[in-house]
Automatic annotation (TrEMBL), chain A:
Known function: Part of the ABC transporter complex UgpBAEC involved in sn-glycerol-3-phosphate (G3P) import. Binds G3P.
Top-level division of the source organism's lineage: Bacteria
Signal peptide stretch: 1-26
Keyword tags: Signal, Transport
Taxonomic lineage of the native organism: Bacteria, Pseudomonadati, Pseudomonadota, Alphaproteobacteria, Acetobacterales
Assembly and binders: The complex is composed of two ATP-binding proteins (UgpC), two transmembrane proteins (UgpA and UgpE) and a solute-binding protein (UgpB).
One Pfam family it belongs to: SBP_bac_8
CDD domains: PBP2_UgpB (cd14748)
Family designation: Belongs to the bacterial solute-binding protein 1 family.
Compartments reported by the entry: Periplasm
NCBIfam families: PRK10974.1
Gene transcribed to yield this protein: ugpB
Record's protein name: sn-glycerol-3-phosphate-binding periplasmic protein UgpB
From TrEMBL, chain B:
Family per record: Belongs to the binding-protein-dependent transport system permease family.
Organism: Paeniroseomonas aquatica
Gene: ugpA
Segments forming domain ABC transmembrane type-1: 70-282
Protein name: sn-glycerol-3-phosphate transport system permease protein UgpA
Bilayer-spanning residue ranges: 69-93, 105-127, 155-179, 200-226, 265-286
NCBIfam families: PRK10561.1 (NF007852)
Quaternary organization: The complex is composed of two ATP-binding proteins (UgpC), two transmembrane proteins (UgpA and UgpE) and a solute-binding protein (UgpB).
Keywords: Cell inner membrane, Cell membrane, Membrane, Transmembrane, Transmembrane helix, Transport
Cell compartments where the protein resides: Cell inner membrane; Cell membrane
Species lineage: Bacteria, Pseudomonadati, Pseudomonadota, Alphaproteobacteria, Acetobacterales
Gene3D superfamilies xref list: MetI-like
Location (main, coarse): membrane
Pfam short name (any one): BPD_transp_1
Length: 453, 292
C-alpha cells in the first residue's frame, strides 16, 4: 500500500518535472494556440499567396497560430514596425525589404537574431543549402544568420523578340555585353523603335548590380558588412563610365529613363521598349500582359573588366523576429512558434511552390531541384535565368554578397535623385557619382553616430 | 457693449474645457513632442537616445537640400496662391453676371473641392503622363518634349496646376459670396458716372473684395504649405531630383522614409516657426491696408 502511494507520488513528481511551468496559453494547446503576429508588405496578389502559406502552417499544427496582416508598402511596413516597437506592441515577425537590412542589423535589442532564435527553440534549418547570394545578404559579418530569407528576386533583362526581328537582329539571341546592348539599341532606333532600352530600380540595377557583376566594391569595409564606418565608393571609373554611357544613350534616344523604383516596369509589357532591365519578379506581369514574343537574359556587363561577370545580388525581403518593445520581452513559447513557422517555410516543397506561383527565385538549391523535377523550367523557358545568374561564379565575394549600409533606404533615394539630375543634363556621370558619395556618406556618418555603442 | 460676467470661475472653465482639451491634445502636446524630439539624437527604434541641443537645427540649416526645399516651397506656395486665387476671381466675376444656367455652372465649379488630393493628383497624372496621358501624348506629338518625370520645371508646373485646381473651388465660393455682397447701388452709380466694366472692377469691386482676398491669401498659403502633400506624393514623389520637394514633403521623407527623427522634428519645428511668423506678419501689416 505504502509502496503504491510512493510510486504514485513519484509519478506525479515525474509528471511535474516533465511539464515545466508554461504560460497559461500553452497549457491547452488545442484550445488556445499561441498567436504570432506577422506583418508583411506584399500587396495583392502576392500578399494572398503569402497568406496561403501562413494558412498552411496554421493547418499543419494546432499549437501556434500565425496571424498575417498587410501593412502597406515595404517602407510603410518598416515604419509601422518601428512605431509599434516604440509603443511596446511590435509584431513577432516583420517582413523587411533588403534595403532595410543594414538598419535592422543595428537595431540592437529590438531584434532577435535568427541564429539565437533557432538555437533556443531547438530548430535547425540547413542554411548551407540556401543560395549563397540569398543567405549571405542576411548574415552578420561572422556568418551567423540574422534574419530568415524569404521572397528573393534579382534583376534580369527581358527582350522583345518582335522588335529584334523588325530591326534585323537575331531574335533568339540577347545581347550579352553593354557594347552589344548599345549596338542593338542603335539598330532598334534606326528601325523606328522609340524606346530601345529602359530600366527599373535605377539604384539597384544600374549601380548595385553593375558593381556586383564586375566584382567591384560599392562601399568600403566589404560593402559595410564589417562595420558602421563604411564609406561609399561609387565614384569609381567603372560606374562613372557606365553612368556617362547611360546619359549619352539617353541623349541619343537609345535609353529611356522610366522613373523611380518599379515605374519603368510598365514600358516593357506595353510593347514600348525593346530591352528592359527589371526585377525578375516582373515575369508574371509580362506573361500576363505582353502580346509579343519575348525572352529572358542575364544582365549585360562590360567585357573588358577582368573577372566579370559574377553573380548578381538579390532584392526582395526577409523575415525579422522582433522583441515586443523597449521594455517588453517575449515568452519562450512565442519564440518557439516563430521558429516553427520558419521551419515550415524553409521546406523545399513550400519554397518551390512559392517560386513557381510568384516568380520570385527559390531560396534553396533543393527547391530549385523540386521545381526542375516538376518540369517548371521546360514549361517556362527562361525562368531559371535569374537563379543561374545568382549562382554564377560559385561562392559570393565581399563585393557580391550584398549591401549592408545603414540608412540605405535614404541612400537609394539619393542615387535615384542624382541620376535624375544627370539625365536632366544638370551634371555628368562623374559629378553624379561624386554627389552620391558625398551625400550618401553624410547619411552613413549620421547613422553611425545614432547607432554607436 | 454689454458684458456678461460670470460669478466664480468654475462655469467659465467648464465651458472652455472642451476647446482647451482639443487644443492641448491635438496641438500643444504634439508640438511639444516635436520640439523635444528635435533636440534629441535617436536610433530609429528608440533604444539609444542622446540630448544634442540645437545640433539638428544647425545641420538642417546648412544643408543645401533643405535650402532647395525652402526655395521650392516659396515658388510653389506663391504660384499656387496666385493661380488659385486669380482663376477663382475670374470665374467668380463671370459667374456673378446674369447668365443662363448660372446655378449649374456654379455647382460644377465647386465639385473639385470634394476630390481628395491623391485622387486629384491621379486625375492629372492621367492627363499629363508622357506615355499614357491624353495631354502628355498630345504635347509629345506636337514636338514639345514633355516628360515631367525628368524635367524639373515641368514637374513643378504640373504639381502647381494640380494643387491650384483643387483650391479654385474653395476660393470661388468665397469670391462669389464677396461679389454678391457688394451693393448694386454703388456699381450702378459708377456706371451712371460713365465708368466702364474694367474700371468699375478695379476701383470698386476689387477694393471691396479685399477682406475676402486677404482671408483667402492666408488660407491658400497655409493650404500650399501643408495640404498639398498628397498631390506631390502621388504625382512626383518630390522628384525628379529634388525638383518638387517642398518643406513639408521633406519632413515626411526625413521622418517616415529615412526614419531620421531628430532631423525631421527639427525641420517641422522650423516649419512651425515659419508659418507662425508668416501669419503674424500677414495679420499685423497686410491687414491694416485692407478695407473692411
Amino acid at each position: 500500500m505504502r509502496r503504491r502511494i510512493l510510486a504514485a507520488a513519484g509519478l506525479v513528481a515525474a509528471a511535474m518535472l516533465a511539464l515545466p511551468p508554461r504560460p497559461a496559453a500553452a497549457q491547452a494547446p488545442a484550445a488556445t494556440p499561441v498567436e504570432i503576429q506577422f506583418w508583411h508588405g506584399l500587396p495583392q496578389p502576392l500578399g494572398g499567396q503569402l497568406e496561403q502559406i501562413v494558412a498552411g502552417f496554421n493547418a499543419s499544427q494546432a499549437r501556434y497560430k500565425v496571424v498575417p496582416s498587410f501593412r502597406g508598402t515595404y517602407p510603410e511596413t518598416m515604419v509601422a514596425a518601428i512605431a509599434a516597437f516604440r509603443a511596446n506592441s511590435a509584431p513577432h515577425i516583420v517582413q523587411m525589404f533588403e534595403v532595410g537590412t543594414g538598419t535592422m542589423m543595428s537595431a540592437g535589442r529590438a531584434v532577435k537574431p535568427l541564429h539565437e532564435l533557432l538555437a533556443e527553440a531547438g530548430v535547425t534549418i540547413d542554411f548551407n543549402d540556401y543560395l549563397p547570394a540569398v543567405r549571405g545578404y542576411y548574415q552578420a559579418a561572422d556568418g551567423r544568420q540574422m534574419s530568415m530569407p524569404f521572397n528573393s528576386s534579382t534583376a534580369v533583362m527581358f527582350w522583345n523578340k518582335d522588335h529584334f526581328k523588325r530591326a534585323g537582329l537575331d531574335p533568339a539571341v540577347a545581347p550579352k555585353t553593354w557594347d552589344e546592348v548599345a549596338e542593338a539599341a542603335r539598330k532598334l532606333k534606326a528601325a523606328g523603335i522609340a524606346c530601345p532600352l529602359t530600366s527599373s530600380w535605377p539604384g539597384w540595377i544600374q549601380v548595385e548590380q553593375v558593381s556586383a557583376l564586375h566584382n567591384i566594391p560599392l562601399a568600403t569595409l566589404g560593402n559595410g558588412f564589417d562595420g558602421l564606418g563604411a564609406t561609399l565608393q561609387v565614384n569609381n571609373p567603372l560606374l562613372v563610365r557606365h553612368m556617362n554611357n547611360l546619359i549619352e544613350w539617353q541623349k541619343a534616344g537609345l535609353f529611356r529613363y522610366g522613373g523611380r523604383d518599379s515605374t519603368a516596369d510598365a514600358l516593357f509589357p506595353a510593347g514600348e521598349c525593346s530591352m528592359a532591365l527589371v526585377s525578375s519578379g516582373a515575369r508574371s506581369r509580362i506573361t500576363r500582359e505582353a502580346r509579343f514574343e519575348w525572352g529572358t537574359a542575364m544582365l549585360p556587363y562590360y567585357r573588358d573588366v577582368a573577372g566579370a561577370p559574377r553573380n548578381s545580388i538579390i532584392g526582395g525581403a526577409s523575415f525579422w523576429a522582433l522583441n515586443r518593445g523597449t521594455q517588453g520581452a517575449r515568452a519562450v513559447e512565442e519564440w518557439k512558434g516563430v521558429a516553427e513557422f520558419y521551419r515550415y517555410i524553409s521546406q523545399p516543397e513550400i519554397d518551390a511552390k512559392w517560386h513557381m506561383e510568384t516568380g520570385y527565385v527559390p531560396v534553396r538549391r533543393a527547391s530549385y531541384e523540386v521545381a526542375r523535377a516538376a518540369g517548371f523550367y521546360d514549361r517556362n523557358p527562361g525562368s531559371d535565368v535569374p537563379i543561374e545568374q545568382l549562382l554564377r561564379g560559385g561562392e559570393t565575394t565581399a563585393n557580391t554578397r550584398g549591401i549592408r549600409l545603414g540608412g540605405y533606404v535614404e541612400i537609394r533615394n539619393i542615387i535615384q535623385e542624382e541620376m535624375e539630375k544627370a539625365f536632366q543634363g544638370q551634371q555628368n556621370g562623374k559629378q553624379a557619382m561624386d554627389a552620391i558619395v558625398q551625400r550618401g556618406n553624410a547619411v552613413l556618418r549620421n547613422f553611425e553616430r545614432a547607432n554607436r555603442g | 457693449m454689454k458684458k456678461t460676467l460670470f460669478k466664480g470661475t468654475a462655469l467659465p472653465w467648464l465651458l472652455l474645457a472642451p476647446q482647451l482639451a482639443v487644443t492641448c491634445i491635438f496641438f500643444l502636446w504634439p508640438a511639444g513632442a516635436a520640439i523635444w524630439q528635435s533636440v534629441l539624437q535617436e536610433d530609429p527604434w528608440g533604444t539609444r537616445s542622446e540630448f544634442v541641443g540645437l545640433r539638428n537645427f544647425a545641420e538642417v540649416l546648412v544643408e543645401p537640400e533643405w535650402r532647395g526645399a525652402a526655395l521650392n516651397t516659396l515658388v510653389f506656395s506663391t504660384s499656387v496662391a496666385v493661380l488659385a486665387m486669380g482663376s477663382a476671381l475670374f470665374l467668380a466675376v463671370q459667374a456673378d453676371k446674369a447668365i443662363r444656367g448660372g446655378n449649374a455652372y456654379k455647382t460644377l465649379l465647386i465639385w473639385p473641392y470634394a476630390v481628395a488630393p491623391a485622387v486629384a493628383a491621379v486625375l492629372w497624372l492621367f492627363l499629363f503622363h508622357p506615355s499614357i496621358g491624353l495631354i502628355g501624348q498630345a504635347l509629345n506629338q506636337a514636338g514639345i518634349a514633355w516628360d515631367y518625370k525628368l524635367n524639373g520645371g515641368q514637374a513643378m508646373t504640373l504639381v502647381i496646376i494640380a494643387a491650384a485646381w483643387k483650391q479654385v473651388s474653395y476660393n470661388f465660393i468665397f469670391f462669389l459670396a464677396g461679389l454678391q455682397s457688394i451693393p448694386k447701388s454703388v456699381l450702378e452709380a459708377a456706371a451712371i458716372d460713365g465708368a466702364r466694366p474694367v474700371r468699375r472692377f478695379w476701383t470698386i469691386i476689387f477694393p471691396l473684395l479685399s477682406p475676402t482676398s486677404f482671408f483667402l491669401l492666408v488660407v491658400n498659403l497655409v493650404y500650399a504649405f501643408f495640404d498639398t502633400f498628397g498631390v506631390i506624393h502621388a504625382l512626383t514623389g518630390g522628384g525628379p531630383g529634388k525638383a518638387t520637394e517642398t518643406l513639408i514633403y521633406k519632413v515626411y521623407v526625413e521622418g517616415v522614409q529615412n526614419v531620421n527623427l531628430g532631423s525631421s522634428a527639427a525641420q517641422s519645428v522650423i516649419l512651425m516657426v515659419i508659418v507662425i511668423a508668416l501669419t503674424a506678419v500677414q495679420f499685423r501689416f497686410i491687414e491694416r491696408k485692407v478695407h473692411y
